[in-house]
Amino acid sequence: MNRLDYGEFSKALHDRQSGLRLPLSGTIEVTRRCPLVCAHCYNNLPMSDAQAHRAELTLDEHRRLLDELSDAGCLWLLYSGGEIFARPDFLDIYSYAKQKGFLITLFTNGTLVTERIADHLARWRPFAIEITLYGRTKDTYERLTGIPGSFDKCIRGIRLLKERGLPLALKTVAVSINLHELDDMERFATEEIGVHFKSDSAINPRLDCSQSPLAVRISPEEAVAIDLNDQRRGDEWVRFAAHVREALQASPPPDTVYQCGGGINSFAIDPYGRMSICVLSEAHKTDVRAGRFREAWEGFLLEQRSRRTTRPTKCSACALKSACGMCPANAELENGDPETPVDYLCHTAHLRAYALGLEVPPHGDCEYCAGGVHHPALVASAERLQRGVRPTPVAAATDVGDGRRVLPVVSIGAPGGCSSCSAR
Fold first, then answer.
1. Which residues contact 359 (CB under 8 A, 6 or more apart)?
2. What percent of the chain stands above pLDDT 70?
3. What is the pLDDT at residue 404?
């Protein structure tokens, strides 16, 4: 029998479906309720939110949905939240999905993982499990999560899964509260636990349009300093930029609003049975809880994916667009419009390019390109980073002696609401 490793299998499958429109990969949020109240989170709701609980898909509705996804050809599933284990019946949902043959990834904060849950996952092994670690120390972790005791629960969950040999990886979101512990978190993951670790500094406003998470977003200089401090990350950006440049030369981007895989080979379904292009796209959704996945995929999602841009912007021909993370969903959250460039992302992408010595082809009236109003400051910032000058933190810690550091208080914004979209 010929054997194929996963990487070869995945590439072969994607190559075979190239040019076809198939729902190969889906993200399902089973709940937005969570035991943590993280300052940066874009969608968490209280565990006690009875209205949200009542509105969530039932176990039977999840099973019916999984039947439809299987019939439609979906292979990869990501279960996310909120916190997936906030639902007592999540293991029943998960087990049914396993029986249907999906390759399943689980996103969790680990705080609700028990021996029973770990044993069940050991019997029904997922494809991957990713736990978000919010800090290496109790003080930092719980300052970000807002819940006393949550650090110890997370570490216990990590060890329970690792002890059973499950396919575990750790990750973090780099924010002003935990940035000083980023290296310690990586050492903990790779050296003490023995698992892969990754970090990301991407922060979005809440789905209810509150801008509160942006209060802990690190500066563009801090984000790029992370890349420069890790040779592998820097090399990956250089390779990726070259790949994007070649792809754009071979085939200019279409004039559609969406240019990702959303609506082409992927989709997202929220806890209430509403399908969209991705988990961040809150303004344009359709209900599939009544057994209409295929209809929604072939109709509504295709219409969304085919939407044309209404005007040219500096993003339209930018070779850095894919590297900056700009997309219609986060533009809608941050600017209220899917086509308006997100300044923070543009600033960070150009700074990354200058600091790594990447070419930045002209792409219209851009404040960060040569001749732009912010270009001189950007070049000076890139030169500082190249010399190894550490950026001034957005929220600096104060040294109070005895090796202790005090971080300023960050207000965790309460869920807001928006009259111009469907957010709750």
1. 241, 245, 319, 353
2. 87
3. 35
**Are 199 and 186 within 8 A, CB to CB?**
yes
- Of the two residues 191 and 357, the one the predictor is more confident about is 191
Q: What phi-psi label fits residue 281: left (phi over 0), alpha (psi between -120 and 50 degrees) or beta?
A: beta
The rounded distance, in Å, linking the Cα atoms of 2 and 244 is 34
pLDDT for the residue numbered 364: 86
| 304 contacts 263 by C-beta, under 8 angstroms | yes
- Residue 254 phi/psi, 5-degree rounding, is -70, 165
pLDDT of amino acid 406: 40
Residue 422 has pLDDT above 60, yes or no: no
Cβ atoms of 289 and 272 within 8 Å: the answer is: yes
Three-class SS string for the chain?
CCCCCHHHHHHHHHHHCCCCCCCCEEEEECCCEECCCCCCCCCCEECCCHHHHHHCCCHHHHHHHHHHHHHHCCCEEEEECCCHHHCCCHHHHHHHHHHCCCEEEEEECCCCCCHHHHHHHHHCCCCEEEEECCCCCHHHHHHHHCCCCHHHHHHHHHHHHHHCCCCEEEEEECECCCHHHHHHHHHHHHHHHCCEEEEECCCCCCCCCCCHHHHHECCHHHHHHHHHCCHHHHHHHHHHHHHHHHHHHHCCCCCECCCCCECCCEEEECCCCEEECCCCCCCCCEECCCCCHHHHHHCHHHHHHCCECCCCCCCCCCCCHHHHCCCHHHHHHHHCCCCCCCHHHHHHHHHHHHHHCCCCCCCCCCCCCCCCCCHHHHHHHHHHHHCCCCCCCCCCCEEEECCEEECCCCCCCCCCCCCCCCCC
Q: Given this model, what pLDDT does residue 12 score?
A: 58
Q: Are 281 and 272 in contact (CB under 8 A)?
A: no
Query: What's the topology of domain 24-218+258-305?
Result: TIM Barrel (3.20.20)
349, 297 Cβ separation under 8 angstroms = no
Q: What are the sequence ranges of the domains in the chain?
A: 24-218+258-305, 321-386
